Amino acid sequence: QVQLVESGGGLVQPGGSLRLSCTASGNIFSIYALGWYRQAPGKGRELVARITGDGYTSYPDSVKGRFTISRDNAKNTAYLQMNSLKPEDTAVYYCHQNGNWGQGTQVTVSS
Predict the structure, then answer these.
(1) Is 79 exposed, middle or buried (0-12, 13-18, 19+ CB in 10 A)?
(2) Is 89 in a helix, a strand, or coil?
(3) 12, 28, 44, 64: most buried by Cβ count inside 10 Å?
(4) What is the C-alpha to C-alpha distance for residues 96 and 17, in angstroms, rounded to an integer?
(5) What's the rounded mean pLDDT across residues 20-45?
(6) Using CB atoms within 10 A of its CB, is residue 89 exposed (0-12), middle (13-18) or buried (19+)?
(7) Is 90 exceeded by the pLDDT of residue 10?
């Protein structure tokens, strides 16, 4: 079974940046699309970035121009670069691939 492990969350001031990482076990990482999701307290889980196996990316309007998803298939790792962070970006961030979820990493944007 594939395992996904997120890292890189933390506390950052508004306007700051963070880079999240998602590392997968196994040898099928390069085949499937991967998505980053977030869930704020009391809200549902929402997709914030997606990248296909061959590198096509998509974002919702709420993060477009601020977040960038990328992947390094040689390292079985995907990244989410988050810039110009806002308090409303505060959430637990999860990566998802082929039906598998990571454990999540907390991102808190606060002064």
Answers:
(1) buried
(2) helix
(3) 12
(4) 22
(5) 93
(6) buried
(7) yes
Distance of CA 70 to the CA centre of its chain: 10
Mean of the per-residue pLDDT values for the chain? 96
CA–CA gap between residue 52 and residue 92 (Å, rounded): 22
Q: Which tokens is 63 given?
A: 């993060």
Q: Which residue has the tokens 């959430």?
A: 91
Question: What does each C-alpha distance from 73 to 40, 52, 70, 77 come to in angstroms?
Answer: 29, 11, 10, 6
Average pLDDT of the segment spanning 21-42 = 92
Joined tokens for residue 23: 């590392």
